[in-house]
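Researcher: Let's run the pair from yesterday's discussion. Sequence first, then tokens, for each.
Model: Starting with the first of the pair.
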Amino acid sequence: MSATPKSLPARAAEYIRKNSLISNRDHVLAAVSGGPDSVALLSILVNLKDTLGIERISVIHFDHRLRGDESDGDREFVRALARTAGLDFRCGAADVRAFARSRKISLEMAARECRRSFFTGTAAELNAGKIALGHTADDQAEEVILRILRGTGPAGIQGMSPSTAEGIIRPLLFVTRDAVLEYLQERGMEYRQDSTNFAPSCQRNFLRLKVFPLLREAFHPQIAQTIARCADLAREEESLWASQIRTLWGDICLELSEGLCALDFGPMKQLHPALARRMLRLAIDKVKGNLSGVGMVHLEALIELVSSGKTGKSIRIPGGIEATRHGAKLLISSKECAAPKDPLDDVLDVHGPGNYLFGKLGFEFRFCEETKTCCGPDSGAECIRMDSGKLKWPLQFRYRRTGDRFRPFGMTGSKKLQDFFTDCMVPREKRQKVPLLCDSEKICWVVGMRIDDRVKVEAHTRQILVVKLLRLPRNGEF
């Protein structure tokens, strides 16, 4: 005798626990449109309230103002559902069509943004930790196929996640739409039908109404669950990749601020393409806040930019993002955040004694008459001495340029700066970051390494210039 199949609420409880979607004493917002999936979601959450230790359930509904009286009917239907269940009800609304025009985005994307904004705002207002959405395995399958058709990479195949960092959860992602309808029918529960769901002009509707029926007939009835399981496997794979990216991120990300992410070009070039793509996705996400519109074509273009090493070349990414090669950095920035100058162009004039800041380093310049009161030997490390009379003022801090030469302390002939770096085993990707102190004729000091022999202090030196590399306070001020 076979065991009695588990009820949908019991299966949902297992899925919720397995994926840690709800914690004890959570306040859960149930997003209810009035359609079958969201009505079933609300019913199941109410059914499992005590089982899962949910402290409070509130119902939220969003009116997109796209269907006139039909939208009004949906709102009142959901309000009545909440009233019958004795639950708090909150409703939001927006002119989604106008929003789409103003942002120059699709109606579907505009609806999603407006809806999410209301959901997250209400969650913050009510101090609710979770926002439950009614997506099913069919929705997951449609999402995966759409992403593939739009040119997604491996990361996109994972589809929608059971939970997000913003507290959004999808407790029904494991179950088919047919199972949801059967659940509602068994309980005699009513629901609303959105007429726009039957317009095949929408890509998602075309898949639902035309493509998936053919796939079920040609392959097998559970095709949606098969694709959804593929998404689950992809999500597990991406979790492993993400842990590797987090390990590498600290070594590759040079700067991260609002609207700007700078990646170290050298290490990026050494990454396997699979890691490089994911590193770029993470950088774009940190600047843009999402990966909407970013597909394989954009990631491949960025990989090509990294491989080619063409300084100054830029690539535009959907959402007002631009990626540019600047010296030893790959800059990913928003339109609102102008890309900084190429480090090759950064200069700072030094006209005399005082404290100076160049890049992230501080320097103290002072004159000294007595050799004994000056700093130690001319090591070229953190404190150096130079014969002031041998300098052509003003001095200038800059970074290396093509063809730079200097005469390292203790040598009689000049040497290419590039060869000096090679001899000192300075990694190629670090060389652009070494500041140079120059006068109008020559490099006087390769900061932290060596002074030029032509500016060394000798017995007949009358005035000594002492330059000390400072350890700056946390705020970067002297």
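Model: Moving on to the second of the pair.
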Amino acid sequence: MELHAKPLTREAFEPFGDVIEVSDDAEKISINYGLTERFHALTSLDVTDEAGQGIISVFRSSPKACCEINDKKGQLTIDCMERHPLSSQAFYPLSANAYLVVVAPKGEFDVTKLQIFIAQGNQGVNYHKGTWHHYSLALGKTSDFLVVDRQGVGKNCDEVTLENTITIHFNLDNRNY
């Protein structure tokens, strides 16, 4: 199976979670005597099932060995997906590098419903509770991500191995990598 990545937009990603980015339509609050503009409540966390608590971590993700990039066009293969049934999970890039976001709807995993997005280095994502997603897919360079996640009792990661690998094609035109 071969799929093509499309640009990450709020509207296209809405069934799976929230896009975290500074934009003109975000609620803005002037703070710190007018020296800081706060882009307020860009997403909401959902981490308290089974007495869970929110934590912040940094994930350092290396590009997959099978990721090939030539002349800003690339491809890579995936063979697994995961979901977090007890919480949302937010990723925000600290390295300003483009990365891929691979998702499928909540519920029983259905490979035919996979969607792939290419995120710019100034866009984060917050996966809704139960949304199937691939782990961080850094492109071209090792990349750091600020991750807001759940800590607590209960199993909060289900994984599925795909019967067949999936090849993803992407274009980094006008993007950092």
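Researcher: Give me one sentence on the second I can quote.
Model: The chain has one domain: 2-171.
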